User: Fold this.
Amino acid sequence: MYVVLSVVVVFLISACANGVTDSDSRNGLAEPYRLALDELISTDTALNDGMEFISLDFDEQLPLEDSDKQSIEEYLQSRYNVKIYHLTYEQLVAQGLYYASDTKRKGILLSIEKQEQSDQNNMTIEVSKYRSNEGGLTAKVTLAYQQDQWKVVNSTPTKES
Assistant:
């Protein structure tokens, strides 16, 4: 009887854990946001040249949890081996990380401006990359949840400067 009960308990715990994992990977925003930002960073790589930091500016209206923000930050820091800030353009200037007289900036400012989710499996995220006088880029990145993971299916630049 004890063995049967143990097997049933293990089965139930396993089923519950799998349900939570699948739900979290689909409903959590860290993965699609990381993919959208990574897609943008890989576009117009000249803006990344000599990059010493990335500053993340998330619109306050976005449904991002602190854990999502932390996951995005850790991913970008690990992938690009640069310091990560959570500062707006004005805050970067105030902290001396951007200087109006410099023509070359030491970092890039990434913004997630808007997110639209048409259904549970499809999402469009509008992201921008800015490096002051050197230029900027805004793109709409379309993602789809396929085979238990988010994938970029389209990236369309909407504005370049």
Remarks:
- Helices lie at 2-27, 30-41, 66-80, 89-94.
- Residues 1-25 have pLDDT under 50 and may be disordered.
- Residues 29-160 form one domain.
